[in-house]
Hints:
globular
Amino acid sequence: SRSTIALGYTVPGILHESSRVRPKVVDALELKKYGLRREAEPWEISFMGSDGRAWVAGESSGGLDERTSHAWAEYSAFIARVRTRLERLLDALPPDPLGPVWPLMLVALGVRRLGSKDMTELLRVGPMCVADWMRDLFEDERLSATVALTALTGAFTGPWSPGTAANLLLHACSTHRDVVGGPAALIDALSASANAQGVTVRTSARVKRILVGRGGVEGVELEGGEQIAAETVLSTLDPRTTLVDLIGPQWLPYRLAHDASRIRMRGTTAKVDIALSGPLELDGTPVEAMRTAASLDELERAFDPAKYRSLPKRPALDVRVPSMRDSSLA
């Protein structure tokens, strides 16, 4: 999971951060037994916009005026209240809308138990664009843009796209403290847990196709021609690649093959690793995490060129300096 990009500089892999590993997964795989520990303190995120900067760290805030600090505290309290219900929903199997009614009723009952005020707010926020939600909450555009960027990363959306408030809500309710040592430490713990269960992990073994016979899945064939027999194959690739490219439409119902082949996947996120000659600083203060959009409109302008398959002149950056917490990286 680690790779060297320059003499003395190591990057922790493709993962950007490790805050979303689920507690249920940590317990089920006994990852604490294999060295996984959470950070004691949240990352401190700096704002870097054309009109100055402030800080937000976890559920506290600093560098904000009194009115904005109060708004931030209210937002954090709302997330804390709805978090348990939404986490429980994320941990459960998705209910079948055409199946029995009672699983859907249980979901509705869980939301109802939030109380009328929080339930109404949850139902109001869900379909909204994240920009409208942020402007309802905060007067400070820097804070709005910094929080909103979370809802846009990895999605073909801008802050004014409908439904992006739900992205932010789900992310905020499923985020925990980062893993000590970052993504590389998370991968190490997962590998150790897998090895203890008798799992053989092979890298650089690209799958060419999933083997299918009359009885169903039979295994996989690697690019080198090697075939591995298996009664079950789990793919963590996207549905189009898995169903259309690896299995093949000839083995699928026509409607499923047709729908899978039409899934649109236009990426808007790139990760760049940079070796710095010294600390990243703002006004002489070392920075460990930083976001660069000063306003919601700046975020929208950064997204606009993606609609026309071009790059923005001022992309919205989500910057991390992992060596601030793990000095072995640099």
